[in-house]
Design a protein that fits this description.
The structure is a single chain. This protein has about 375 residues and is α/β, with parallel strands linked by helices. About 35% of the residues lie in helices and about 20% in strands. It folds into two domains: about 150 residues, Rossmann fold; about 180 residues, Ribosomal Protein S5, domain 2, CATH 3.30.230. The chain has eight helices and 16 strands. The strands form four sheets. A five-stranded parallel β-sheet has the order 3-2-1-4-5. Strands 10, 11, 12, 13 and 16 form a five-stranded mixed β-sheet that branches. Strands 6-7-9-8 form a four-stranded mixed β-sheet. A hairpin with a 3-residue loop joins strand 6 and strand 7.
């Protein structure tokens, strides 16, 4: 992301990232994209390389790359690097795969900042991987990159290893599957600096930093039970009060999930209930494009950990507003305030998992009789 959602930062020192920006050159956010198996179909019979003659762009790639460009990412394709390729014909014509793919995507308005084509050294798999890592490292060394906000999208564990190696967030998609539904939002005000990155098709992996330990723990629970990979980096005026930070995390998180949902076609739309020891939390969600919150839970303590209990309803109201979702939260009974709050976040995670899930029986169909959400 090259710029925050709400304009240029106002207060030096608030940003978790800004402290490292010593020069006038603004770091770029990069989306590193594995080609074969992530952007284009790779037939198994070709040893893990895309079809030379007719590269088949995978579902969701166009929409996903468009969203990344809208969010200010520079697209960097990583081509090759897996498996041994000693076929003379494929060595001669391998570039046609690249040229045809780039041409097709350019017709859709998608431009790549850089294409890193790994060498076709005959030494085999290990040499190819080493060459690929070295090439990406050279690119990272030559460019001023915001590694905290950059990502790598791939379909293999080796791709995730490369992401860790260069210090960016790795998004692990399925080989030849739909391109991950992901989004990033950076919101900066005079009071807070919040960055949220999500992947709806994840495994519940999270990196949460909010400065409020119990709040971060609740967001980790939400991520885990929703199977949404989630990064949250938030700083703010906690010396004044927790209100601004919790509210703005709710707003930014809701907006990120809404972006990742796109047109909301082919989703289950609804999701619902979770017992936790003495607590029973019912959370019903409708991702129908309208904001509404019902919150029926009475807290008897002013704080749980470092989180004011009065901010729990406010967080969910902010989240509902930008997610454009109906959220009904009812805690039927509980003797423990910690359990109340944790049950709510876990139940919301489960409800979101159900509602965001792709519906195999209505793929590409809007879940509404209105024709719009």
């Amino acid at each position: 992301m090259s710029a925050p959602e709400d304009g240029s930062p106002q207060e030096p020192g608030l940003s978790w990232m800004r402290r490292s920006m010593k020069t006038s050159v603004t770091p770029i956010s990069v989306a590193f994209l594995d080609r074969d198996g992530t952007l284009v179909y790779e037939p198994p019979e070709r040893g893990g390389r895309a079809s030379v003659e007719t590269p088949e762009v995978l579902p969701g790639v166009i929409e996903g790359l468009e969203r990344l460009m809208e969010e200010g990412y520079r697209l960097v394709m990583i081509a090759g690097g897996e498996g041994e390729d000693t076929d003379p014909h494929r060595q001669r014509t391998g570039e046609s795969t690249q040229g045809e793919l780039v041409r097709r995507l350019r017709e859709k308005g998608i431009e790549f900042y850089q294409i890193l084509a790994c060498s076709k050294a005959p030494q085999g798999r290990s040499r190819r991987r080493e060459d690929c890592i070295a090439m990406v490292q050279r690119f990272v060394g030559q460019e001023k990159i915001d590694l905290d906000r950059s990502i790598l999208v791939g379909d293999r564990e080796t791709d995730m290893g490369l992401a860790r190696h260069i210090g960016v967030w790795g998004i692990h998609g399925a080989t030849n599957g739909r391109f991950p539904r992901m989004a990033s939002v950076w919101r900066v005000t005079r009071e807070t600096d919040v960055f949220v990155q999500c992947n709806l098709d994840g495994k519940g992996v999270s990196q949460i930093e909010t400065g409020l330990k119990f709040f971060s723990h609740m967001l980790e629970q939400l991520s885990r039970h929703a199977l949404i990979d989630l990064r949250v980096k938030a700083t703010g005026d906690l010396d004044v009060d927790e209100h601004h930070l919790i509210e703005d995390v709710g707003l930014t998180l809701g907006q990120a999930l809404s972006r990742a949902l796109g047109m909301r076609k082919g989703i289950m739309r609804y999701g619902f209930l979770l017992p936790m020891d003495d607590a029973l939390a019912e959370v019903a969600v409708d991702l129908g494009g309208r904001s509404y919150l019902v919150f029926d839970c009475d807290f008897e303590r002013e704080r749980v950990g470092d989180v004011p209990t009065e901010m729990v309803e406010h967080f969910f109201r902010s989240f509902s507003d930008t997610l454009k979702a109906n959220i009904h939260i009812n805690v039927r009974y509980s003797r423990n305030e910690h359990h109340k709050m944790e049950a709510i976040f876990k139940a919301l995670g489960r409800a979101l998992r159900m509602a965001c899930e792709a519906d195999s029986r209505s793929e590409g169909v809007l879940p509404s009789t209105k024709g719009i959400l």
